[in-house]
């Protein structure tokens, strides 16, 4: 849990700096920062869609458990 908290705190420190550098590189325009955030969102969405829920494994290991929703 401490490692996850450390990574979140580190991301909270690095993200504003990175956005500031991108805005500076684009001569004060926020277009680069917006596209950076959009690209990170797409990467996160793709990573989320590739996750395996493991519901199939749970139901085969615990057949007596009834799901609340089918």
Residue-averaged pLDDT: 86
Percent helix, as a range, is over 70%
Largest sheet: none
Rounded to the nearest angstrom, the distance between the terminal CA atoms is 32 Å
Helix tally equals: 3
What sort of overall outline do the alpha carbons produce when their principal axes are compared? elongated
Q: What sequence of helices (H) and strands (E) makes up the elements? A: HHH
* Poorly predicted parts: none
Q: How would you characterize this protein structure?
A:
The structure is a single chain. The protein has helices at 2-25, 31-49, 55-61. With 70 residues, the protein is mainly alpha-helical. The protein is elongated.
Question: Which features does this protein show?
Answer:
single chain; 70 residues; mainly alpha; elongated
Topology:
Elements: H1 2-25, H2 31-49, H3 55-61
Short description:
By secondary structure, this protein is mainly alpha-helical. It has helices at 2-25, 31-49, 55-61.
